[in-house]
Structures are given as C-alpha cells and as structure tokens.
Amino acid sequence: MNTVIVLFRREARLAMRQSADSVMVIAFFVIAVVLFPFGVGPEPNMLARIGPGVIWVAALLAAMLSMERMFLGDYEDGALELLVLSPAPLELIVCIKVLVHWLTTGVPLILAAPVLFIMMNVPEEIWPVLLLTLLLGTPVLSLIGSVGAALILGARRGGVLLSLLVLPLVIPVLIFAAGAGDAVLYGAGAKANLMLLGGILLGSLALTPWATAQALREAVA
Amino acid sequence: MLHYFANPTRFQRLSLRVEPWLLALMVICFAAGLYFSLFASPVDYQQGHTVRIMYIHVPAAWMALFCYTAMAVSAAVALIWKHALADVAAKATAPIGAAFTFIALVTGSLWGKPMWGTWWVWDARLTSVLVLFFLYLGYMALRDAFDEPGRGARASAILVLVGFVNVPIIKFSVDWWNTLHQPSSVLRMQGPTIHPDMLTPLFLMAAAFQLYYFWLLLVRIRRELMANRLRILRHRQASE
Predict the structure, then answer these.
(1) B-chain residues near A212 (CB < 8 A)
(2) What parts of chain A have a pLDDT lower than 70?
(3) Does the distance separating the beta carbons of B151 and A218 come in below 8 Å?
(4) ipTM, interface predicted TM-score of the complex
(5) How many residue contacts between A and B have a Cβ separation below 8 Å?
(6) Other C-beta atoms within 10 Å of A212: how many?
C-alpha cells in the first residue's frame, strides 16, 4: 500500500507541474467540437443529431494528444529503466500511471462535456447516459493508449504513429458510446451499450497493464 | 524441432528446393479454379453471373484472417522462444495480408453495388474487416518506425497480439449482429449451406490463394535474410 501511495504521489506531482498539458487537451476538445457548427451549419436539429458522435470523436482525438507523454518523459531521462528494475510490479506502476493520466485528461473531458452538450444542442434527457459513457469510456482510452504509448518509445514520429495504432483498437468504444445516446432517444434504452462499455473497461483493466508492462520491458531492453 | 529451421542457411536451401513445387501447384490450382469459377460452375438463381465475384472475394477474406493469425502465431513464437525466423516471417506476411484484406474489401464493394445497391455499409463484418486493414497498416508502420530493427520487431509483435482480439470478432460478427453481410455459409457447426458445385471452385481458389501465400512468404523471407546480410556487410564496410 505504501508503494502505491509513493508512486501515486510521484505521478501526481509530475502531472501538477505540467498542468498546461491538461488545459491544452481541454482546449483542443472544445475547439474541435466548436468547429462543427461552423462547418455543417448551425441548424439545431442537425447538431443534436450529430452531437454525441462529434463530442465522442473529439474526446478520442483529444485523448490521443496527451497519450504520448505517458512514458516519454521517464524514457528520455532514464527513470523508466529504474521503474522497470524496481521490486514493485511493473503492472502496478503502469496502473498508477494510467490512473493519473485519466485523472488529468479523462476527468477534465467529462467535466467539460456539459458545456459542449449545450453548444451542440444535445437533448437534456440523454445527458446522463452520455456522461456515463464518457465515465466508462475515457479510462479505456487511457488503458489502451498506454499500450500504444509504451510501444512507440524511441520511434520516429511517435505521436502520429500512436494515433494510427490506438484509434482502430478503440473503435468499438466509440461505436457503443455514441450509440448509447441514440438508443435512449429511440426508446430502446442504453443498458446494452453501457453493459458492453463496462465489459470492455473490465477487460482492458485486466489485460492492458500486462501488455504495457511487456512493451516497457522491450523498450528499455 | 522448431529451431531446426531457424538456421538461415538451412532455411534458404530448403526454401529453394520447395519453391518451384509450390509455384507449380499454385499455377495448376489457379488454372483449375479459374476454369471452374468462370465456366464450369452454375449461375446463382438470384444473382446470375455476379455470384462469380464470390470466388475471389471469399478466398481473399479467408486469407486476410489467415495471414493475421499467422502473424500473431509468428509474433508469439518470436517473443516467447526468440526464434530467429519467426519475426522475419511476421514481417514478410504483413504486406501480403494487407493486400488480401484490400482485395476482399474492394471485391466486396464491387459485389455489393449490384446486389445490395450500395458500395459500402457500416455493418459489423465490413467495419471489423476495415479495422483489420488498419491493424495491418499500423503493424507495418510501427515495424519501420525504429532505427534499430530489433526494437521494431519486438514492438510490432506485441501490437499484433493485442490486435488479435479482432479476428474472432470478424468471424462471429455475422452471427452476433444483424448484418447486411450474409451469415456464415461454409464454416458452420451444421456444415456448409453452399451447393457442392459452387464449393468446388471456392475451395480450389482458396487452395490457390493459400499456395500463393506460402510461395510468396518463402520468397519474401529469403529476401529479408539477404537484406539483413547486406545491411551487416554495409555496416562493416562503413566502420573500416
């Protein structure tokens, strides 16, 4: 337990010192969504129709922006080798890094979402479901993104490559999350979508830390 | 036994002996398969002659899944046993698999326009095969993104294994979801639902594609081994 607290405090302190990263992610999220009314016209019904999907795609892309930095700082100054060699399980270290990444990227996205729901004229009855999909889906982005972030350490053009690797793997999350809003509006209820999102979250939680740890070991080997 | 073929020189000798036979068999299978597909098989009662696209589309789709599975197995063998030729095999398979996936998507699209009235639809089967195509591209991109080739090999091996979850999704997508794409007709518990007159050219073309893959794989592995050797010689020359 002591290990967890020490690791968490290290990651949290590092993240606090670079708080501009969180702000940039939120700013990109908002700007990306705001571009759509300019692009497709401000007709409210159409914006309501495309709103949940657009907001979710923008959340995906905003998360991709910050993903690269998960391990890059530690890789470049050698701290990653110490973490890999430490007696604490590497999978635990990965989990804590993912947790802090989600707290500094995913949670601000969820908090900024209601403002964007207003801007995209999303009907108020589906706000709770959409917020729930963001709550279930953004940790999955951090988890699967962590595998990608570990794989691209030392690669050329790592940031762009990361998006190419991670986005195909998170397409199911996007499909079920964006579909949840429609499901509520058509009366079918979002229970199935939310269950599937929960399943994907639990599966990623169980499997991705191991894959990320393996990738980290390959990166410093 | 697995490591018996890991010796590149032995592999090269064996491959040179086997390749002509594979090539000959492939030509025979293609000739027979094309003859049966285009001339000696019946027209569909609903689709007419358009059904003949199936004899390219279905084997290409089967090969797309087969190649990804082969890559995943090679990647696992490379990571677990550090087999010398396993990740060369994975690297050689990737463009072949990507090409088969592309052919499956394009021929499917060409078949869909006259039959379904649309070039594309976002149903479970087509979406998951498109994701497979992106996984192939991601693998090839990651492989080449590192200055040190060994790092690229190991990183992309992990990526292939992470993406392998897509393969059962593709296979069972037509059973789990309501899709426009037709349900499983060949690999089913109750046996195939296609008439034997159509199964013959289908399996002949599938065998031809499979032999093509194995022949091309051997050629590409030999090419990779020679490229490796050239790279070492060039490094040695540069450091003198």
Answers:
(1) none
(2) none
(3) yes
(4) 0.85
(5) 62
(6) 30
